[in-house]
Amino acid sequence: MRTFAGVFAAVWSTFAAFGVVVPVIPRLVTQTLHGSAIMVGAAFATAAVVALLLRPFGGQLAQRCGPRWVLALGAAIAVATGMAYALPLGAPGLLAARVGMGVAEALVMTAGSVWAVSLAPSHRRGQVVGLYGLSMWGGLAAGPALGEVAYRVGSYVLVWALAAALPVVALLVLSCLPRGDVVGQQVSRRLVPPAAVLPGLALAGGAFGYASVTSFGELAMADRGIAGGAVLLSLFSAAYVGVRLLASRLPDRFGPVPMILTSASLEAAGLLLIALAPSWWVAAVGALVAGGGFTLLYPSLALIAVDNAPEAERGATLGAVSSFLDLSVGVAGLVGGVIAGVSYPAVFGLSAALALTTIAAGIAAARRGRGRASS
Fold it and tell me: Which of 156, 273, 344, 352 has the lowest CB atom count within 10 Å?
């Protein structure tokens, strides 16, 4: 328990550092660097693409070299990234810092996942994976608030200092923890193992809805003349965290397939409520239901993926599954933007339909695992 708490704290503080810079990058680009909205998008997309591509490699490296070492490497790169923001190198310097952040995110996230899974007994693996996920979400949720306060108190200098200092906290915590298991001789070279594909596709179906709420929730409400649409994401996130805390044992207790069926159905229902909402209250209920449904998809699908993967591929499998989420979020921004030009309800209707595809993909992944076990 002490080791898991340390891993949680290290990942939380590092992801909080990633979140600290979120509210100030648009200001930096448009006000200081005199860049356009396209450059703002490029700054955020750079880190996301790098993280997406490197996550499977990070999981593989964590299995080969030990999760503690890889997590510490990611935290150290995050420290350097925070310092790089402060250098007067203009737009190229900012993009280079975002590349560093993407590398750090990939290493920290996947190494922490590998470590958390190695600490969990098989009958509590879903719960541990679910609770571990809150370290990332919690850090990313707290970071922007901290960054906004730091900017108002001390401008960019304090923001960059905070972005560099928070990963130092992670390094101090990690220095007090054991190394973690090293299984170098058993690591496969595959970066996208077969066990990750179906769970990853299932997770992508659910993540499309999360991205739609993030990108288009407020705009969809404003299009209907409904104020307060910005709160939908907060409600979605609150339900996500609350249900994850209260119900993290359910995938272990009832099995991943029943939880996928329930979670996907709830998410789809919530998204349909947002699509058709005639008032803010209906949309708010939809956001709560969708967030509460989406939260248990990842631990349930990760449980299937880990159980189906050979020991030598578990690190890369966890990294690859999470990469599908990132890919879905990116696609949702592009596809949803096109559809939103015609109809905001259509965006959430499509999101609900894709959430339901999670059921078929999740069941297929579970059956594949059972078929392999019986052969």
Answer: 156
